DNA sequence: CAGTGGTCTAGACCACTTC
DNA sequence: AAGTGGTCTAGACCACTGC
């Protein structure tokens, strides 16, 4: 009699299973961004494991910036609405090092059928409805960023220029408070391009001026892509920073 | 009698002290890149703490990519000479996703007096001797990267064009094997620029073509800056990738 | 089979926050 | 003082590697 081959998923530590259960609770919005989750002891009792095992699960989620630990207070669900996290994904900063206060101006917010490229990135079907937002961000009165943003129209139902204009603050805080969608991570691809006529006009630069092109896909819980950005930065007075570890 | 004010450094966990001691051993080259450090039990005995405390110290060093754990084998000092780590700091990749094989061509390697900018970044005194290297990297015969590199001439004594040309492989593996200098992390600042005549010639592009300008400072143990790079990437067929967490 | 890192537990105590 | 996360220990057992 042949010996059965080994199972594919050979081994999963307890703390990984706990981590998955906590993640599921986050995804199911059982605990909302900004609020505290049960204490380590409570979770240990709920899952019938020791505190140390819960600890290790939470440690990893905190390392991934999904949870935030605060000694003496508790463990909290990460939120883009905290001051510290407002510009967590913004890597642009002034060459001078001064504080960077970007002012928003929305140019458009329209529903359209997704192109095949957008659909693929958002894991939708080509032609599914998406919302396109155009915006310019300025610093000290100078336009610095021009970007187009795409969102699934079903997830962000009813999003309009008016709603955007009522909001003052970062987009990710907006998504979170208005649509219950918390961004967990993002991936960017960066190129240098020459400004065409449209970009030159928007960013008040000569035709052909070099710009940073930043393509971003942002993900919510469960590695679900929910936002596409196609941004151009004027980097004459500011730069993109990155730390390599 | 007045109560003495609180000490400035109020509290330092044991595992942080252990971590500092391991770091000191790395910096002192007691254990070399690629070799294994003593087992957790041995270190626990040496420092008179429990295995768990050593574990936590090593966990953090592994998270910072200074050490690499291998179950069943031991814990090893990170090295740029392993295949996996060869291009740890290279964030450029082809749009097509194919494998990126860059070919080196060194244009110059000359000693000079450091400018004040270079000196400040390398934490040297202005005028201290540095070595400047110019190189071009090509992919499929096309020049993609032109960069200037500066190193302290005292740390990299005797570095010459001949030595560079004898070497085939990444620079950081070269620094490590030839000068005992292991790079731990790096910081980059990125801008978009228009190619001037010199860059256009080197990268075989029309004048004014947009290029990615990447300024890098690389650090060895103890946050000591030891290498400056001033690189320009042609990003028409490739892009810079970044993950935001 | 011995040695390594990886997991899990139980319990003690510390540091910080809040009441 | 009570409750939270943070540190530290000791010991058991598991998974992986190499002899």
Q: Would you give an account of this structure?
A:
Two copies of one chain form a homodimer. Chain A is of the alpha+beta class. The first copy, chain A, folds into two domains: 14-77, Winged helix-like DNA-binding domain superfamily/Winged helix DNA-binding domain (Arc Repressor Mutant, subunit A, Orthogonal Bundle); 83-240, 3-Layer(aba) Sandwich (Chorismate lyase), CATH 3.40.1410. Helices cover 26% and strands 35% of the residues of chain A. The first copy, chain A, contains seven helices and eleven strands. In chain A, the strands form three sheets. A six-stranded antiparallel beta sheet of chain A has the order 5-6-7-10-9-8. In chain A, strands 1-3-2 form a three-stranded antiparallel beta sheet. The first copy, chain A, has a two-stranded antiparallel ribbon with strand order 4-11. The longest helix of chain A is centred in the N-terminal third of the chain and has 14 residues, at 14-27. Chain A is globular. The N and C termini of chain A lie far apart (51 Å). Mean pLDDT of chain A is 95; it is low at 1-8. The A-B interface holds A 63-65, 88-89, 91, 185-194, 208-213, 233, 235-236, 239-245 and B 63-65, 88-89, 91, 185-194, 208-213, 233, 235-236, 239-245. Strand 11 (238-244) of chain A pairs antiparallel with strand 7 (185-194) of chain B, so a sheet runs across the interface. Chain A binds a DNA duplex (19 and 19 nucleotides) through helix 3.
